[in-house]
Fold:
Amino acid sequence: MSVLDDLNRLREDARRAFERVPGTRELEQARVRYLGRSGELRAAMARLKELAREEKAQAGRLANTVKGELTEAYETAQARLSADEAPAHARPMPDPTLPGRAQPRGTRHPLTQVIERVVAIFERLGFDVADGPEIEDDFHNFTALNIPEHHPARDDFDTFFVRGGGILRSQTSTVQIHVMQNRPPPLRVVAPGRVYRPDAVDATHFYAFHQIEGLAVDTDITFADLKGTLSLWAREMFGEETGTRFRPSFFPFTEPSAEMDVSCYFCHGRGCRVCKQSGWIELLGCGMVDPNVFEAVGYDAEQYTGFAFGMGIERIAMQSMGINDIRLFFENDLRFLGQF
Ligand code: 2NL
Structure:
């Protein structure tokens, strides 16, 4: 048997042995047998001396190759066994008395928190919650709201136009128009949602923001119902001691129209930075639904009256949570969102 043959046989046997060893003990036995100081590889290499020069060089190269391969096969087997060596019963018993690992709990977006608080109060007052599409048509965003085409009132409501037709809604009144088209009075409904206006972005303006609009329609709704409902809501929202005041205003879709202020919930009316020393915080716009709106949705304007209101969520959230930049709401930065 030539040395070359010996080496080739050794190469095969040892490789197969290393691939198949079932445990570390067997692996060590294989290492001693093939790669050990008095192992088979050493023995074969010792026989190189007997060879003629020519053969010696050739067999020497093969011996080196075999040594490299087998060392690698040994290491591979070692890695394989250390991964699955310890059977379950041999591993330390897990301690079931240790406290569990707490899963970090997420928080709701601050705007969602405000929306949910506002809506929950109106739900207790008998209002339903409705939503609708953000891409709207001219009728729902303008015409039905008593904002005719080519009327200067349209200029107050700059809009995004969608390629292929449609506009991004600039207020959620669009939702109440849909509701009135689909349901007969009486109804009480609030519509929270995102709206769009092409404002230049800064710390207090963003091209998208959130609104809650509300609408109540019945045969004898009066301005007293409006004041009573919104004042009660304000006390639930900002505290029992909260006062309200109504100042005349204008909206195309309500007549008469008003702005509602609440007494400052920071200084209780004494005057501070938030209320700019006035003691009051401007909160929402409201009014009695213009009969033209009822006509547009097919309600009998002689029979029905209603009140409506709309408030911006971002400003309420910023004031009540001490947030000084509206852009923070839209950056999805968990360092910010996790604080609320
Ligand atoms: C504001 C003012 C307001 C309304 C929204 C409304 C909706 C219908 C009919 C009549 Cl369907 N009015 N909505 C009324 C008054 C004011 O919003 O300053 N919003 C941020």
User: Anything to note?
Assistant: The chain has two domains: 3-90, 110-337. Strands lie at 128-129, 135-136, 167-168, 187-196, 208-218, 244-251, 254-263, 280-289, 305-312. Residues 53-84 form the longest helix (32 residues). Residues 3-90 form one domain.
